[in-house]
């Protein structure tokens, strides 16, 4: 049994928070509620006191004495539901003048926040920056859903179903409890490739792709947090994204697919696992021009780029004698469910991998600071797992999978 603090802040979605409390209690946990004053306009003290059989923490008790941090001290998990835009800003800035923000600031327990607000507030650059800051600090953010909003408008910003919030929060708790007992990847070496390669056309131009490197970085970070020695091969990842990495991760920066091949072949020697998340260009210009290509004002035609095939790094490692005991590839596909499953199964069979992480991509899904939905296919193309949520949540699920697979090899 764990102690969970549910922090309630002042939005119309607060009426769903009692269900989150009830679900946590039903799972056998002890629940305390901390509420902001504004939230009591939506759900009153008597409701909280009725369902938890204890006072709700609203006023900062015994400031200056240990009492005010008591909730933070006992918490094994903090769930903020709903989290208003105001609360996200306050958490990101480290405020501590109400019981909800104070408890988060004073606690080292995992924190799950479930934002709910009007679409415009959710999409506002300030809110998105606050969410990115919180995620960077390891806070688990459950993205809002789309649908009817309290204002009568509809769009993104709706609180997901409370049962779903409780389920995801309890998964975070279970992972934290497991990580507390022993780092699951202790003594393992994991090589992760991330980002997107750039194939030079001339000194200023390249053929590239939209990969931000976030999913690979999240996997490197999750593996490092789980005790692994992590070697990251990073292709063209923005410095702002690289800051999300724990300092223990060893980084090799590369540019093109050929650079990535060389680095990967060197780094996988002696490793336990290779996770190949990088978007590697399949083709490169036959030869990069030594000087910038100019347009001839007298002509209207355009130069033709001759492309040649790049090596398939995953395939090469997967079929080599330096293949680590575990090799995981990624497949970003577009199409219907049926089509992407078929593409994924084909890759799993061909590339010499143990697993393929299959995800659907499109103009608005898959790339950048957005949630992911990954299906794990084994070498025979069978779906053996599914990870959904933020890229950190997906990464934590994969770190568990890597640990379980490597442990199973020793049994
Ligand atoms: O064939 P496709 O590019 O879809 O396969 C994706 C997987 O193969 C990813 O894991 C990617 O990192 C890897 N790959 C590679 N070398 C290439 C192309 C893809 O290692 N040239």
Mean pLDDT: 92
What's the name of the CATH homologous superfamily of the largest domain?
CoaB-like
CATH topology of the largest domain: Rossmann fold
The proportion of residues forming helix, as a percent range, comes to 25-40%
Which blocks of ≥5 consecutive residues have pLDDT under 50?
A: none
Number of domains: 2
Q: How much beta, percentage-wise?
A: 15-25%
* CATH architectural name of the largest domain: 3-Layer(aba) Sandwich
The first-to-last residue Cα distance is 30 Å
Q: Strand count, sense and closure of the main sheet?
A: 8 strands, mixed
Strand order of the largest sheet: 12-11-8-13-16-17-18-19
Judging from the principal axes of the Cα atoms, what is the shape? globular
Structural class: alpha/beta
DSSP summary, beta strand count: 19
| CATH top-level class of the largest domain | Alpha Beta
Radius of gyration: 24 Å
Count of separate DSSP helical elements:
14
Bound molecules: cytidine-5'-monophosphate
Overview of this protein structure:
- With 411 residues, this protein is an alpha/beta fold.
- It folds into two domains: 177 residues, 3-Layer(aba) Sandwich (Rossmann fold), CATH 3.40.50.1950; 221 residues, 3-Layer(aba) Sandwich (Rossmann fold).
- Helix content is 35%, strand content 24%.
- The protein contains 14 helices and 19 strands.
- Strand 18 and strand 19 form a beta hairpin.
- It starts with a strand and ends with a helix.
- The relative contact order is 0.10.
- Bound molecules: cytidine-5'-monophosphate.
- The site of cytidine-5'-monophosphate has 13 residues, from helix 12 and strand 16.
